[in-house]
Amino acid sequence: MTCLIIDDSPMARAALRSLIGEVDFLELAGECEDALSALKALQERPADLLFLDVEMPRMSGLELLDSLAHKPLVILITSKRDYAVEAFEYRVVDYLVKPVTYPRFVAAVQKARELFQQQDRKAGATEGSGQLFIKVNNALTRIVLEDVLFVQALGDYVTIVTRDKRHTVHFTMKEMEHRLPPARFVRTHRSYIVALDKIDNVEENSIAIGKNLIPVSESYRSAFFSRLDLL
Known about the structure:
By secondary structure, the chain is an alpha/beta fold. Helices cover 32% and strands 33% of the residues. The protein contains seven helices and 15 strands. The strands form four sheets. A five-stranded parallel β-sheet has the order 2-1-3-4-5, with helices on both faces. Strands 10-9-8-12-11 form a five-stranded antiparallel β-sheet.
């Protein structure tokens, strides 16, 4: 999930930057010191999640939300507790009071991640071509999604592993996560996306798909297990 910090306090931005760096499913897209610069930043590069300070000069965080035609997920950050009612009315993900503690931060971003995945699943319900095309040696190669076992990140590339082949393409994991139907694929690690129906075994912090062992990181563990049909 890409996120944007919007806060007029340099210390608050630094604290949030440090917390975001501890969570592997968050990608910091940028920082803004006021709402007006945030408007410009969001026009140039939309973000999935905003860490938004309520009290800022010229335009408050709530006024910024009023001005957005498309509202991302929002976690409000404030030094006061007086905005709880407004936070509820704006349907923000969570409401954090400064100084933000690590456990409280993690709880809020996990909630945001679950909502983000729900949105993706709803969007994925209208998808379903069952295939994608990748460019290999100046030609387009068709990959049937039913054949995909998992995807692995390799620096600026990803390897798409199917039943009988491996295709390495210049792509990011975030882009792959958006391209693959969320009803059929799940992120288990910063470097792995797996096909749910290809999992043979799950043991402790790893998944077996055939002879391949794939890690499940702590940050993705809860969301991953919520996707399994457990008896």
